[in-house]
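[Automated response] Your request has been received and processed.

Submitted sequence:
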Amino acid sequence: MPAELKSISHGQTMVLTLSNPEHRNALGPEIYAAGVEALSVAESSPDVRSVVITGEGSTFCAGGNLLRLKESRALSPQVPAQSVESLHNWIEAIRTFPKPVIAAVEGAAAGAGFSLALACDLVVAARNAVFVMAYSNVALSPDGGASWSLSRALPRQLAAELLLLGERMPPERLHSLGLVNRLVDAGQALAEALALAERLNARAPNALASIKELVNDAPGNTLTQQLASERDHFVKNLFHANAGIGIDAFLNKQTPGYH
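Generated structure:
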């Protein structure tokens, strides 16, 4: 069966499922293109307030298909370069998507599968999950923004350890390092991710979009620049209809219903 990205709705959450069971949900160009398209549809739909990315069966994602990579060595370097660029388009689409994206990880998240999880805003991992930056194990360097994500989230020595040694990392260690938000029992990652998504769906979408943008931009800004950006977002959100709904609901001890 060909690799595909399945999409279903769960309330106000779009669930994207990596489906390539013969190759442990390995990634490929068809999945990258489908991922970009799905996020474009979700961004323009007011019925979608969050996205969950998960893997079919007991594996999140084994990363790139090594058989396909081996075959690409006989082709022009332009061919794998275009494939990697397609992956990067999806990673960038996830990072800049204005709604929350949650990874629900069961089993292995290897190579680009690990990179994909790191691109998400929140990561829920089952205790049977295994994270591994497997690139150096087959004489490759990372893609999918792995070096960027890890270097932003961890001290240099820890980022280098994960990338240079390519060791299998248990979710408990990544949780202690702040890379995993929630640890759950095996088989419960998707349920927990959906529960988190439901909580986020109840919040004002415009405020969440501003928070994502502020967090994404902060490492590249000076304090003065970030303060100015926070001011502009705060004032914009203050004059959004949702701020009136939220403030009134809080003062009247009611549950807000945001647009």
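Summary generated for your ticket: DSSP finds eleven helices and eight strands in the chain. The domain at 4-201 is CATH 3.90.226.10 (2-enoyl-CoA Hydratase; Chain A, domain 1).
If you did not submit this request, please reply to this message.
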